[in-house]
Design goal:
Shape: globular
Strand order of the largest sheet: 1-2-3-4-5-6
Number of strands: 6
Largest sheet: 6 strands, antiparallel, barrel
Strand content: 35-45%
Structural class: alpha+beta
Distance between the termini: 36 Å
Length: 124
C-alpha cells in the first residue's frame, strides 16, 4: 500500500478542526517538514496558508501523527486541534468553498498552479 506523504513545495488541501474554536479549510503549500525523531510520530510542518483571513500566512505547527493512509495524513496539535492533509483536488475545493471563491481554480486543469498566481493567493 502506498502511504500519503507531504512534499515541500507542493500544494495540499488542509482541514483544521479546532474543537470549540471552530474549523477552517484552505489550500496550503508545504514549505518544510521536520521529523522530531522522538519515536512518537511527531513532526513540525511549516506551510503557507493561502486562505488565512489576515496577518502572517506562513505557519508552523508541531503535530503528532494519528493516522496516515493512502490519501491523507491526520495529526493532532496540543491535544486539541486536528489537522487533515490530503491531495488538492477539484472535488475537495467544490465541497469546501462556494463556487464564487473558486471559479478561477475550477477553470484550470491544475488548481494548484492557480494558487501561485499573485491575484488569487489570500483571496479569502
Amino acid at each position: 500500500m502506498t502511504v500519503f506523504s507531504l512534499t515541500p513545495g507542493v500544494w495540499f488541501a488542509m482541514d483544521r478542526l479546532a474543537g470549540g474554536q471552530g474549523s477552517d479549510s484552505s489550500p496550503v503549500k508545504i514549505l518544510s517538514i521536520s521529523p522530531l525523531k522522538t519515536g512518537r510520530g511527531q513532526l513540525v510542518v511549516e506551510y503557507y496558508h493561502a486562505f488565512y483571513p489576515e496577518g502572517v500566512r506562513e505557519k508552523s505547527t508541531q503535530l503528532t501523527v494519528l493516522t496516515r493512509g493512502a490519501d491523507s495524513l491526520v495529526g493532532i496539535e496540543d491535544g486539541s486541534r486536528i489537522y487533515i492533509f490530503q491531495p488538492l483536488t477539484r472535488m475537495w475545493l467544490e465541497s469546501s468553498f462556494v463556487r464564487e471563491e473558486i471559479s478561477l481554480l475550477l477553470r484550470s486543469d491544475d488548481p494548484a498552479a492557480c494558487l501561485e498566481m499573485e491575484h488569487f493567493v489570500g483571496v479569502r
